[in-house]
Specification:
Oligomer: single chain
Strand content: 5-15%
Distance between the termini: 12 Å
């Protein structure tokens, strides 16, 4: 592929810089929200993963969280003890366990999400709804494009070819 024009490269670098800045702020805020909800950030991730998946095996949750199954098991055990998760034997394989949110776990997910929505609303309080909607649509498109780029980056196309396109 031909080299990107200077202006496109500069614009890409600026987008990357702002996304990185937003990501750092988001992680910091996520930690603060987790603590306000009496959770650790990793526990929030587990709860939201189970909210999206409904129910899954401990091993699948570990894969999704990019942690060792023993780490996921300890996180799950603590959340079961707190009444936020339920664990049951997998009917397809009695050696494995399935985990899911309890009603209290779902309430905790809703509490954390409400805190995040409140923060975004505060951040954008001076923006008209139309601009917020445009931002949401642009971010949705960016996420889709990023997923495609990730597939290309990790797929059959040599990674260096993609890097050359962007540098």
């Amino acid at each position: 592929m031909p080299e990107l024009p200077e202006t496109r490269r500069d614009a890409s670098a600026r987008v990357l810089d702002q996304m990185s800045s937003l990501s750092r702020r988001s992680r910091t805020f996520a930690t603060m929200v987790a603590h306000r909800a009496d959770l650790q950030p990793a526990q929030v991730q587990v709860l939201f993963s189970l909210y999206r998946a409904t129910e899954c095996r401990v091993a699948a949750l570990a894969d999704q969280q990019l942690v060792d199954p023993s780490v996921a098991s300890r996180q799950i055990t603590a959340l079961v003890k707190d009444g936020l998760l339920a664990r049951r034997p997998d009917p397809a394989d009695g050696r494995a366990a399935l985990v899911s949110l309890t009603d209290a776990g779902l309430a905790k997910v809703k509490q954390v999400r409400a805190l995040h929505v409140q923060a975004v609303a505060e951040s954008l309080r001076d923006w008209p709804v139309e601009r917020m909607d445009r931002l949401a649509a642009d971010l949705e498109e960016l996420v889709g494009a990023a997923e495609q780029a990730y597939e290309r980056f990790t797929g059959a196309e040599p990674a260096m070819e993609l890097v050359k396109e962007l540098v």
